[in-house]
Design brief:
- Two copies of one chain form a homodimer.
- Chain A is built from seven helices and six strands, in the order βαβααβαβαββαα.
- By secondary structure, chain A is α/β, with parallel strands linked by helices.
- In chain A, strands 1, 2, 3, 4, 5 and 6 form a six-stranded parallel β-sheet that branches.
- In chain A, helix 1 packs parallel to helix 6.
- Chain A is globular, with a radius of gyration of 18 Å.
- The interface between A and B is large, with 50 and 50 residues.
- Chains A, B: Its main location: cytoplasm.
């Protein structure tokens, strides 16, 4: 709907890839709806995934023993985080919906996107004890994980060799997004596009565009073990 | 036992941290046993976590559309991977046991270590269809995930707010290690050391040294959904 803000965090090296096309489809469809869409293209930005002392500008709270979580928390409070983090946090703060678009690497997101989570979702900004899970600081936002897999739908079925695809969503959806208070929409999964025909790949893009048309009417998943493991 | 080779992949910024101490304890105890121990200290090496075109030396197989998995597979076969990857692969190849030592970041390993998985465990080296899972190319090796958490043991219990700690081990142990044929020993978990007394932290170090004494007699876990989710 007009006025809604969307941040797409996108991690693929190749604009011509299916992930690149899925990202473009989302930008087009959501813009058509009147949403304002921002993209963080992590590889293009050469986003830094490593959590280091460079993330804190100026003096450390405890320079005797470097504690990343503590130092970024303190730096956040005094406005002393590095500028690339502040920029990403602003985008998150403004967004109603976060879409993560990536190829599944080793049952999870690529390291460059994991680094975005590690560095951007700082204590004080995204959560602050006891404000986590349903009272996380990013509540009232939605998130959606949209990804492609190498393995087939059959491999990721409940009895399949790689186990139910939902098993691997737990750390990303519950462990990160739900922890920060974000409500999670059902994932969007394109299985094994590398082994699909050109026609099937086109169908995948159409299906995504179609889903986005009614996305804002969707209910979040029940982010409890029942959804993931039963 | 004398002659066994161990690779410790270690991801903490601060040598004085508990993770730093756990790593040192492992080096000491295993060396005392006569093992040959190698450490990949990822932050000290400024290890690159991003999977990019830089990982391939020379021409691409398909320069029209960059496909990281395909390109690194081809590069591996012709000896054209970047030298930092070749070096890590040599260490893996020689090791009987891989120990991953890290603080849990967002229900998973820090991005710098995820990048090690993404970039080092290349198709052709670690797996090659249909050689995955029990026939993965790194079979006859053992792996052990040793990590510290922010949350308490109670939070990570079955009925706890963060769910059973085993849920989040699935992508790392089954999705990565088991996929490559590596057998997985029970994880070693230090819960919430930041909130523990100095005495409790010392006990954590002693317990780890103690476990290492009989490590080679341990049986791997049953790496199936039953172990993780029941």
């Amino acid at each position: 709907p007009p006025g809604r803000k969307v941040l797409i965090v996108y991690a693929h090296q190749e604009p011509k890839s299916l992930n690149g096309s899925l990202k473009r489809v989302a930008v087009e469809e959501l813009s058509k709806q009147g949403c304002s869409v921002t993209v963080s293209d992590l590889y293009a930005m050469q986003f830094e995934p490593r959590a280091t002392r460079n993330d804190i500008v100026g003096c450390l709270h405890n320079s005797e023993e470097f504690n990343y979580g503590m130092e970024t928390w303190e730096a956040y409070k005094r406005g002393g985080l590095s500028s690339d983090l502040i920029e990403e946090q602003k985008k998150v703060q403004e967004a109603d919906l976060l879409i993560f678009q990536f190829p599944l690497y080793w049952f999870s997101m690529p390291a460059i996107m994991k680094g975005w989570m590690d560095r951007v979702l700082v204590q004080g900004f995204a959560h602050e004890f006891p404000n986590c899970y349903d009272s996380g600081l990013l509540k009232n936002k939605l998130a959606l994980f949209s990804f492609t897999t190498g393995g087939s739908r059959e491999m990721y079925a409940k009895g399949g060799i790689s186990g139910d695809i939902r098993y691997l969503l737990w750390p990303m959806q519950h462990g990160i997004m739900h922890f920060c208070g974000v409500k999670v929409l059902a994932p969007h999964i394109c299985f094994a596009p590398e082994y699909a025909s050109e026609e099937k790949r086109k169908e995948m893009l159409t299906a995504w565009a179609q889903r986005l048309k009614t996305l804002w009417k969707e209910e979040p998943i029940n982010c409890s073990p029942e959804w993931y493991f039963k």
